[in-house]
Fold each of these.
Amino acid sequence: MGEGFTGSRVGALQKAHRVETVYYVAIERRRSMSITLRFKSLIYAITASSDASNAVKRLGLLERRLPSAASRFAIPFVFRGRGYFRSMRPRQNPGEIERLYQAVCELRPRRVLEIGTAKGGTLYLWTQAAADDAAIVSLDLPGGPFGGGYPAQRVPFYQAFARPGQNLALMRADSHAEASLAAVRAHFGAGPVDFAFIDGDHTYEGVRQDVAMYSPLVREGGIVAFHDILPQEWSPVTQVHRVWNELKRDNEVEEFIDRDAPRQIGIGLIRVPRDGLRLATGAHSDETRASRDASSVPAAASIE
Ligand SMILES: C[S@@+](CC[C@H](N)C(=O)[O-])C[C@H]1O[C@@H](n2cnc3c(N)ncnc32)[C@H](O)[C@@H]1O
């Protein structure tokens, strides 16, 4: 009996000790991670300006090696820099974004709007696909959901994406603010937008609002494109597919889905008809409400 008692007591103590150890290891790991992160940000901040000029130089080197618009598709995927400029990789499935890139190269837009820029990969592509004298606007919310925006230190690097003669405006703001719409309009002046890429807030309401606010700026025959048009089980808050399904009902669309890729995300393209892009109103169905209640938007969450 004594032995049994001792055995179970020792077992219980060992178990408690293991739980406690796991707990403290987790705390230590978090603490050392945040110390590492703080240390990393400090180093990045100290080296930011030399890393920025190094990144611009590396980009220039790649561009000299890859002079055509078609070959420059590879650049954001292969670019490597230092510190804040480690990567400019698009948050995209390469096979899918390549097809959109081809469509935009054919359009050769003079006015381009991107909502959601993050590491700048797609913004870079639009500067290469656009006309030599294009006006390009990037709207991205610092610390925004679905990617977290980009630090101010990357601004000079993104400015270097613009080709000579192009005018690139980096607006670090909420696309849903009326002031952002006014700033976009002011930047483009009287001319209509030829191409808009909507890849910012991925909630149902967020995408609908971007469509409602910015698609009227796009001219007849211009392109409005969307990322994440397929349901993403790993991110229930990403609901672009629901807006896309509504758009599909009333517009002619093209879908770029790379069936050979390990994971499909999907890009949708609409060529704006004469009477504008059609999105039915009052689509706040029970399904919308239920899914909105079930999922909350993660601040600065990563969707990939
Ligand atoms: C998925 S990332 C964009 C990825 C980029 N287009 C690419 O393929 O590399 C989404 C970005 O949208 C931004 N964002 C989220 N909500 C926004 C909003 N309301 N207004 C502007 N930007 C927003 C986030 O800050 C994030 O950087």
Amino acid sequence: MTIDNLKTPKVALGTWAWGDSGETGNRYFGSHLTPAGLEEVVDKAHAAGFTLWDTALVYGMGRSETVLGEVLKRYARSDYQLSTKFNPRIAGTGDDPVADMLEQSLANLGTDYIDLYWIHNPADVARWTPHLIPLLKNGKAKHVGVSNHNLSEIKLADQILGEAGFRVEAIQNHYSLLYRSSEQAGILDYCRNHGVSFFAYMVLEQGALTGKYSSENPLPEGSSRAKNYNSMLPQLKALTDKLASIGQMHGAAAPDVATAWAIAKGTIPIIGVTKPHYIDSLVQANSITLTSNDIAELEALADAANVDTRGFWEQQM
Ligand SMILES: NC(=O)c1ccc[n+]([C@@H]2O[C@H](COP(=O)([O-])OP(=O)(O)OC[C@H]3O[C@@H](n4cnc5c(N)ncnc54)[C@H](OP(=O)(O)O)[C@@H]3O)[C@@H](O)[C@H]2O)c1
């Protein structure tokens, strides 16, 4: 049985872009992150009380986990929580590919347990979910969740874990003003009704919803996110302007309001933090209470933008 319930923070910290650190970063984000800069991010986050770090083996193929493990070394293991993922798409051929991949993550992160271990995508739920059970029993994974699963896959995974006395404790899906498929598919309601935490990823659409990028100042040239988002930036202007104007009333900025929206919808946003001052934005987001009118206006503008931000790895919900 899961002894202690998953303690969920208001906001979690995302490190996919941290895979862009080092000489040969995969440049998905087109960022140039250095361990020294990321140390500052970690120090600022911890000082503000944000201590749940989300990563995955596939982020920069180990680079995100490795740099995260390095910069967290100055802290006691009990002072932060780690969230990382088994990815069926790169499963090995040994007897237990899930346990094997977890060992790689543990080595990269320099730890002997993961607080929240995920199945990254729903390739063969019946095959992979049972492999989480021994990890929960031996304590290498304290809690488990599923990511990018639709409602029937979530229920199947929960049933499989339930037979062993465990459960799907958390869901992690793409959820932003521009991408509300988990809400439309009833996954948010499922989470609310079953006491399951919903972690929302890409709340800022990889920077496209912050108002910082525009046709004049596009996302970094050559990066994957530039290819995905640059052409839609003009359509997002009315929405990012509205985020900024709501922010002004609270002494806050557009991204803070986008994050506050995700909190208001009952989710735990995982925000990709690449610069120390983005932590201030999370503090702001936590202090903003949006009215139902603000939320309705933002969602109407998001719908009017009429863009599809589904990631290439995501299925329709
Ligand atoms: N389970 C999955 O399949 C999955 C998929 C995607 C993401 N995730 C997780 O969710 C996390 C979040 O997603 P994401 O990192 O892809 O995208 P995101 O959180 O939507 O956007 C992150 C980007 O937004 C910009 N940003 C963040 N805070 C800002 C602020 N206060 N002001 C201005 N710009 C700001 C930064 O861009 P610049 O660096 O250009 O400044 C940052 O790289 C990931 O890191 C990962 O942990 C999981």
